[in-house]
Specification:
CATH architecture of the largest domain: 3-Layer(aba) Sandwich
CATH superfamily of the largest domain: SPOUT methyltransferase, trefoil knot domain
Order of helices and strands: EHEHHEHEEHEHEHHHH
Shape: elongated
Structural class: alpha/beta
Radius of gyration: 19 Å
Distance between the termini: 58 Å
Number of strands: 7
CATH class of the largest domain: Alpha Beta
Strand content: 5-15%
Strand order of the largest sheet: 3-2-1-6-4-7-5
Oligomer: single chain
Helix content: 40-55%
Length: about 240
């Protein structure tokens, strides 16, 4: 199964050489689409050298000012986490992740695999933009994988499962990351407007609601219905005030 709808997203990568190594890992495993969010170095001499012939992936890479822009048209977003978080979020191992990704691609959906900074990874706010987190098990006494290694592990699992999986019947118009982001912003504002949101507990509540809607996998029509309900609730609250 072709993996043209899989995008590798690197967030604020510090070293150009790591971007080149990721491009090489991608080309090894038949992945082509690379997106960079605010890279500190790019297309440096070391970057090109470590790509080892995967220059085409570097040339065609897109560069974005923020993560939301890089994810906007994606239907499934999976964030790589080097450590198990205190923030409860659906978690997959690499093989399970590959299964979900291959299924989504088989239905014609766009997928993003998101990798964070070399030293600190992804922030909790960035992880909350993901439907799942993927964690690569490793030696607990020496668990450090560099960025290219992590991409290589997940890309290998994708290639293996993609080769063994037949395309599926395309699904409906699943909501994109931009659609979900719009819903969450609208939902938080509506909950404030109707007096439901307690500022002291807003982060925890919104995190649980995001998990709920990611789990539901709404399509674009359902997003429009939900936002219509929110707008109606806001309008009724405003009318009562008047």
């Amino acid at each position: 199964m072709p993996m043209k709808n899989v995008r590798i997203v690197l967030v604020e990568t510090s070293h150009g050489g790591n971007i080149g190594a990721v491009a090489r890992a991608m080309k090894n495993m038949c992945l082509e689409e690379l997106a960079l969010v605010n890279p500190r170095q790019f297309m440096s001499e070391e970057c090109v050298a470590r790509a080892s012939g995967a220059d085409d992936i570097l040339r065609e890479a897109s560069v974005h000012s923020d993560l939301d822009e890089a994810l906007a048209d994606c239907h499934l977003v999976v964030g790589a986490s080097a450590r198990l978080r205190t923030v409860a979020w659906p978690q997959l191992d690499p093989r399970q992740c590959a299964g979900r990704v291959v299924e989504a691609v088989g239905r014609g959906q766009r997928v993003a695999l998101v990798f964070g900074r070399e030293r600190t990874g992804l922030t909790n706010a960035e992880l909350e933009r993901c439907r799942y987190l993927v964690h690569i098990p490793s030696n607990p006494d020496y668990s450090s994988l560099n960025l290219a290694m992590a991409v290589q592990v997940l890309a290998y699992e994708l290639m293996m499962q993609g080769q063994a999986t037949a395309p599926l019947q395309p699904a409906g118009d699943l909501a994109t990351a931009a659609d979900m982001r719009g819903l969450f912003v609208h939902l938080e504002q509506a909950l404030e407007d109707i007096g439901f949101l307690d500022p002291r507990k807003s982060d925890k509540l919104m995190r649980r609601l995001k998990r709920l809607f990611h789990r539901a996998e709404p399509d674009q029509d359902e997003i429009r219905i939900l936002r219509g309900i929110l707008s109606a609730a806001q309008g009724r609250k405003s009318a009562r005030r008047e």
